[in-house]
Design goal:
It is a single chain. The chain is of the alpha+beta class. The protein folds into 2 domains: about 100 residues, no CATH class; about 60 residues, bsu07140 like domains (CRO Repressor). The protein has 8 helices and 4 strands. The relative contact order is 0.10. The mean pLDDT is about 85. Keywords: Cell membrane, Membrane, Transmembrane, Transmembrane helix.
Length: about 170
Protein backbone atom coordinates (compact mmCIF):
# COMPACT_ATOMS: atom_id res chain seq x y z
CA UNK A 1 0.00 0.00 0.00
CA UNK A 2 2.84 2.39 0.90
CA UNK A 3 4.52 1.81 -2.45
CA UNK A 4 1.25 2.58 -4.24
CA UNK A 5 0.85 5.88 -2.35
CA UNK A 6 4.49 6.73 -3.11
CA UNK A 7 3.90 6.04 -6.81
CA UNK A 8 0.63 7.99 -7.04
CA UNK A 9 1.98 11.00 -5.15
CA UNK A 10 5.47 10.81 -6.65
CA UNK A 11 7.02 10.92 -3.19
CA UNK A 12 10.51 9.88 -4.32
CA UNK A 13 10.40 11.34 -7.84
CA UNK A 14 12.71 14.11 -9.04
CA UNK A 15 10.01 15.46 -11.36
CA UNK A 16 6.28 15.00 -11.06
CA UNK A 17 3.94 13.92 -13.83
CA UNK A 18 0.68 15.79 -14.40
CA UNK A 19 -1.31 13.01 -12.76
CA UNK A 20 0.97 12.90 -9.71
CA UNK A 21 0.58 16.64 -9.27
CA UNK A 22 -3.19 16.23 -9.69
CA UNK A 23 -3.23 13.46 -7.08
CA UNK A 24 -1.22 15.70 -4.76
CA UNK A 25 -3.70 18.54 -5.33
CA UNK A 26 -6.61 16.28 -4.35
CA UNK A 27 -4.67 14.99 -1.33
CA UNK A 28 -3.69 18.49 -0.24
CA UNK A 29 -7.27 19.70 -0.69
CA UNK A 30 -8.60 16.92 1.56
CA UNK A 31 -5.80 17.41 4.09
CA UNK A 32 -6.38 21.18 4.11
CA UNK A 33 -10.09 20.68 4.81
CA UNK A 34 -9.27 18.32 7.66
CA UNK A 35 -6.64 20.66 9.09
CA UNK A 36 -9.02 23.64 8.98
CA UNK A 37 -11.79 21.60 10.65
CA UNK A 38 -9.42 20.47 13.39
CA UNK A 39 -7.90 23.92 13.69
CA UNK A 40 -9.89 27.10 13.63
CA UNK A 41 -12.64 28.14 11.23
CA UNK A 42 -11.93 31.82 11.80
CA UNK A 43 -8.96 31.70 9.40
CA UNK A 44 -11.24 32.48 6.51
CA UNK A 45 -14.24 33.84 8.38
CA UNK A 46 -12.69 37.05 9.62
CA UNK A 47 -10.41 39.35 7.76
CA UNK A 48 -8.09 40.73 10.40
CA UNK A 49 -4.45 41.12 9.41
CA UNK A 50 -3.69 38.14 11.65
CA UNK A 51 -6.06 35.91 9.66
CA UNK A 52 -5.03 37.23 6.25
CA UNK A 53 -1.33 36.61 6.93
CA UNK A 54 -2.10 33.09 8.11
CA UNK A 55 -4.17 32.42 4.98
CA UNK A 56 -1.34 33.57 2.71
CA UNK A 57 1.29 31.48 4.50
CA UNK A 58 -1.05 28.48 4.67
CA UNK A 59 -1.68 28.64 0.93
CA UNK A 60 2.01 29.05 0.20
CA UNK A 61 2.96 26.04 2.31
CA UNK A 62 0.29 23.84 0.74
CA UNK A 63 1.25 24.90 -2.79
CA UNK A 64 4.77 23.60 -2.14
CA UNK A 65 3.33 20.17 -1.32
CA UNK A 66 1.38 20.15 -4.59
CA UNK A 67 4.22 21.25 -6.85
CA UNK A 68 6.86 19.10 -5.18
CA UNK A 69 9.04 22.04 -4.12
CA UNK A 70 9.07 20.61 -0.59
CA UNK A 71 8.71 17.06 0.73
CA UNK A 72 5.02 16.11 0.72
CA UNK A 73 4.37 14.75 4.24
CA UNK A 74 6.55 17.23 6.20
CA UNK A 75 4.88 20.08 4.32
CA UNK A 76 1.42 18.89 5.38
CA UNK A 77 2.69 18.62 8.95
CA UNK A 78 4.01 22.19 8.74
CA UNK A 79 0.58 23.39 7.55
CA UNK A 80 -1.03 21.59 10.48
CA UNK A 81 1.42 23.15 12.95
CA UNK A 82 0.72 26.61 11.49
CA UNK A 83 -3.04 26.21 11.92
CA UNK A 84 -2.59 24.92 15.48
CA UNK A 85 -0.35 27.93 16.26
CA UNK A 86 -3.08 30.20 14.87
CA UNK A 87 -5.64 28.51 17.11
CA UNK A 88 -3.34 28.83 20.12
CA UNK A 89 -2.65 32.53 19.51
CA UNK A 90 -6.35 33.27 18.93
CA UNK A 91 -7.21 31.49 22.20
CA UNK A 92 -4.40 33.31 23.99
CA UNK A 93 -5.73 36.63 22.71
CA UNK A 94 -9.24 35.70 23.86
CA UNK A 95 -8.24 34.70 27.39
CA UNK A 96 -5.70 37.45 28.09
CA UNK A 97 -6.02 41.19 28.45
CA UNK A 98 -7.21 43.36 25.61
CA UNK A 99 -3.70 44.70 24.92
CA UNK A 100 -2.53 41.26 23.81
CA UNK A 101 -5.70 40.81 21.77
CA UNK A 102 -5.23 44.22 20.14
CA UNK A 103 -1.63 43.36 19.26
CA UNK A 104 -2.53 40.01 17.71
CA UNK A 105 -5.85 40.90 16.09
CA UNK A 106 -5.79 44.68 15.89
CA UNK A 107 -8.15 47.22 17.49
CA UNK A 108 -11.20 49.06 16.22
CA UNK A 109 -10.90 52.81 15.65
CA UNK A 110 -13.59 55.42 16.34
CA UNK A 111 -14.26 57.47 13.20
CA UNK A 112 -17.37 59.35 14.36
CA UNK A 113 -18.19 60.04 18.00
CA UNK A 114 -21.46 61.70 19.07
CA UNK A 115 -21.98 62.83 15.49
CA UNK A 116 -18.54 64.49 15.25
CA UNK A 117 -16.03 63.33 12.66
CA UNK A 118 -12.78 62.15 14.22
CA UNK A 119 -10.58 63.65 11.52
CA UNK A 120 -7.29 62.44 13.00
CA UNK A 121 -8.46 58.81 13.19
CA UNK A 122 -9.91 59.09 9.69
CA UNK A 123 -6.63 60.45 8.31
CA UNK A 124 -4.55 57.78 10.09
CA UNK A 125 -6.69 55.08 8.50
CA UNK A 126 -7.21 56.74 5.08
CA UNK A 127 -10.98 56.90 5.54
CA UNK A 128 -12.83 59.63 3.66
CA UNK A 129 -16.26 61.12 4.23
CA UNK A 130 -17.34 59.25 1.09
CA UNK A 131 -16.29 55.98 2.78
CA UNK A 132 -18.55 56.83 5.74
CA UNK A 133 -21.46 57.69 3.46
CA UNK A 134 -20.97 54.37 1.68
CA UNK A 135 -21.04 52.58 5.05
CA UNK A 136 -24.39 54.25 5.85
CA UNK A 137 -25.80 53.03 2.53
CA UNK A 138 -24.33 49.55 3.04
CA UNK A 139 -26.13 49.30 6.38
CA UNK A 140 -29.41 49.69 4.50
CA UNK A 141 -30.02 53.26 5.60
CA UNK A 142 -30.33 56.48 3.69
CA UNK A 143 -28.78 59.88 4.15
CA UNK A 144 -25.31 61.12 4.71
CA UNK A 145 -22.78 61.71 7.43
CA UNK A 146 -25.15 63.97 9.38
CA UNK A 147 -27.16 60.84 10.29
CA UNK A 148 -24.20 59.06 11.95
CA UNK A 149 -24.02 58.96 15.75
CA UNK A 150 -21.01 56.61 15.91
CA UNK A 151 -18.85 54.94 13.28
CA UNK A 152 -16.02 52.49 13.82
CA UNK A 153 -13.33 51.03 11.62
CA UNK A 154 -13.47 47.42 12.78
CA UNK A 155 -10.52 45.05 13.05
CA UNK A 156 -11.69 43.38 9.86
CA UNK A 157 -11.37 46.66 7.94
CA UNK A 158 -15.14 47.13 7.63
CA UNK A 159 -16.86 50.28 8.80
CA UNK A 160 -19.78 49.82 11.19
CA UNK A 161 -22.24 52.65 11.69
CA UNK A 162 -24.71 53.51 14.45
CA UNK A 163 -27.22 56.08 13.26
CA UNK A 164 -28.77 58.86 15.33
CA UNK A 165 -32.30 58.34 16.58
CA UNK A 166 -34.97 60.07 14.50
CA UNK A 167 -35.49 62.84 17.09
CA UNK A 168 -31.77 63.62 17.40
CA UNK A 169 -31.25 64.79 13.84
Amino acid sequence: MGEYVDLVLGIHEETLTWWQMSARAVGVFLAALLIIRIGNHRIFGKNSAFDIVLGIIYGSILSRAITGNSPFWPTLVAAFVLVMLHKLLASFAFYTNSGVSDFIKGASKTLVKDGELQKEAMAENSITENDLTEAVRSSGSYGGIERIQYAYLERSGKISVILKNEGEE
